[in-house]
């Protein structure tokens, strides 16, 4: 018996990520981020001037509701800035399993063109997500908001 195809749940995680961004659901968005992604974005906030103690409370889940909400709203705005020009309502997805020590799927998000060519509707790459298996769930580990970078080095 072969292992289950990780592409289907990874694409579903990508769809949930973009649904949370479209709905401006910052709590849902935070829940979809891997531990590595959470650490990265909190460390980035510290580099950009966030108080270390406040950042620690957010990472540990002990921040007050107002402090947490303020941070998550800013995080969502940053993601929306990275995705500017991308029509989030029309995305299509193309997964690729990446070899690694743990489950990892690279999901390219594409913008379908308005006109079909024969039976095919071409799509333009807009960026990608790296989705990882974590504690039995699929989480967003990297956001690469532009085509052409397939290594997931930008979050």
Describe this structure in words.
The chain has 155 residues and is α+β, with helices and mostly antiparallel strands. It has one domain (1-146): Nuclear Transport Factor 2, Chain: A, CATH 3.10.450. The chain has 5 helices and 4 strands, in the order αααααββββ. The chain has helices at 7-22, 26-31, 35-47, 52-60, 65-82, and strands spanning 92-97, 104-112, 123-134, 137-144. A 4-stranded antiparallel beta sheet has the order 1-2-3-4. α3 (35-47) packs antiparallel against α4 (52-60). The longest helix has 18 residues, at 65-82. The chain is globular and about 55 Å long. The model is unreliable at 148-155 (pLDDT under 50).
Characterize this entry briefly.
The protein is α+β, with helices and mostly antiparallel strands and 155 residues long.
Spatial separation of the terminal alpha carbons: 35 Å
Global shape: globular
Determine the CATH topology.
Answer: Nuclear Transport Factor 2, Chain: A
Low-confidence stretches: 148-155
Which structural category fits the helices and strands? Answer: alpha+beta
Number of strands: 4
Order of helices and strands: HHHHHEEEE
Annotated CATH architecture:
Roll
Provide the spatial order of strands within the biggest beta sheet.
Answer: 1-2-3-4
Tally of alpha and pi helices:
5
Mean pLDDT across every amino acid position: 85
What is the C-level CATH assignment?
Alpha Beta
Q: Assign a percent range to the helix content.
A: 40-55%
Radius of gyration: 16 Å
């Amino acid at each position: 018996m072969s292992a289950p195809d990780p592409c289907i749940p990874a694409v579903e995680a990508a769809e949930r990520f973009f649904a949370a961004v479209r709905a401006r659901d910052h709590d849902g968005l935070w829940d979809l981020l891997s531990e590595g992604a959470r650490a990265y974005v909190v460390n980035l906030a510290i580099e950009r001037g966030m108080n270390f103690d406040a950042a620690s409370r957010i990472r540990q889940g002990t921040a007050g509701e107002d402090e947490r909400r303020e941070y998550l709203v800013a995080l969502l705005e940053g993601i929306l800035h990275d995705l500017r020009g991308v029509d989030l309502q029309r995305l299509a997805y193309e997964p690729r399993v990446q070899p690694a020590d743990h489950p990892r799927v690279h999901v390219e998000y594409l913008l379908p063109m308005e006109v079909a060519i024969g039976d095919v509707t071409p799509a333009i790459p807009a960026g990608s997500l790296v989705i990882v298996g974590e504690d039995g769930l699929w989480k967003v580990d990297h956001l690469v908001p532009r085509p052409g970078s397939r290594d997931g080095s930008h979050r």
